[in-house]
Write a structure and sequence with these properties.
The structure holds 2 protein chains of 2 kinds. Chain A is an alpha+beta fold. Chain A contains 2 helices and 18 strands. In chain A, α1 runs antiparallel to α2. By secondary structure, chain B is an alpha+beta fold. In chain B, the strands form 8 sheets. Chain B has a 4-stranded antiparallel beta sheet with strand order 8-7-14-17, with no helix packed on it. Classes of the chains: A alpha+beta, B alpha+beta.
Chain lengths: 243, 263
Amino acid sequence: MDNASYIVLSRQKSLFTAMDNIASNVANANTSGFKSESLIFQDYVVQNLDSQEELAFSHDVATHTNYEQGALISTQRTFDVGISGSGFFQLETPLGVRYTRSGNFSLDLQGFLVSKEGYYVLGTTGERISLNLDDTNIQISSDGIIEANEEQRGRIGIMDIANPQLMNKLGTGMYEYNDENTPPYPGENYTLVQGMLEQSNVNSIKEITRMIEVSRAVGTTSGFLSDINELQKKAVDTIASTQ
Amino acid sequence: MMRTLSIAATGMQAQQLNVEVISNNLANINTTGFKRQRPEFQDLIYQNEQRMGASSSSADTIIPTGIQIGLGVTTGAIYRIDEQGELIQTGNTFDLAIGGQGYFMVELPDGNTAYTRAGSFQTNGDGLIVTADGYTVQPGITVPNDVTDITVNEDGEVIVTIAGQTATTNIGQLDIAQFINNAGLEAVGGNLLIETTASGAANIGVANIDGSGNILQGFLENSNVDPVREITSLITAQRGYEMSSTVIQTADEMMQTANQAKR
């Protein structure tokens, strides 16, 4: 008898997690380089010892990140770089290399190319990229080569990851990746665009539709809980009255 | 569940800030030397409900992706975009525009130096070249009383013809400051910027040398705010705000539904 309400409860708990996930996507609808996420649910099957029946609980097992390309918007800023295609910028942080799709860079006091948090942007061989203090006419080519007054200053390294689902999201647009079996490799299928930033790939219509779905499902599960409650109440009443 | 409400609230706060920045840009659409700003948002930290790489059984099978719930959005930076503004011809002698990199240097009343792209200068009672607020433009050039013609050339040299003379006289050259990180300058209002540790120390030179721009006399640099771009951002911001607000409403309804499960 109780199993029914616990199964419904497992579903309802998953639905509330799904709602958190939708809220996070919607909140990041304007975050550059943000990739939308969704939850994957699975049934968690339990054999009931008494009746041999199988019970399937709902269980959220994983977050799936949608790495689809976000729209590029023009900012006209020299050090805004958007990635069109697959791959990530590499940042040197005190805790190791981190990856990001958010290409909002600037120069630090020594002339190094840094992210908005002040982490060094790394080149193709993992080196920092430095420019001269009086450089003008800075051009970043589609393969990441930075030229100032037609002299090469470095090349932005783009790394690709075979299965980006394995990346750990750290917030502030940064990802961590430590899997040694399939190390990151230099990206090939990308084009860099100077003066543009990649927007979030959150699809608002999809999110609102998912939200309606989740909200309705909560209504249905609550209905179930209510029915189960009625049923139990009736059972108790009937047993009590026969005595 | 309360998580949804706070996540959606961060979304609304971010869009509110976005609208504030846009309204400041639009308010300054005709401000000489104004550079438009843009807020940069980033995702907040993640809550790991189940870490990727955790083992799912005793046979060393690992969970490939885990469950990560993002906790909303935060503002990473609001940065100035130093794109050149359009140059407007005014014909005024001391209206100067910089075409390219660099800032005019202005001495503040407290003795500190501020930097500006707004070159609408005048001469004061003593003939000194000053800003609209009366602050001295560095290095402090005094124009004699009896001049008939004043020219500021591309390099920022002020050349005058003194009445009764045929030869011209060079009475000084304007300082131009450059910074390694222009975005690090702090705006203090009145079209002025001051240096910070992020911008680095000013690299003082003159126009047309070491990458600094040239000076155009009789022109002013208008703001680089593009109304079409701002209105588009405004629409995006408003829709984002509406969506986060819808999420809050829905979350509220969901909690209500859950509460009504027991009648």
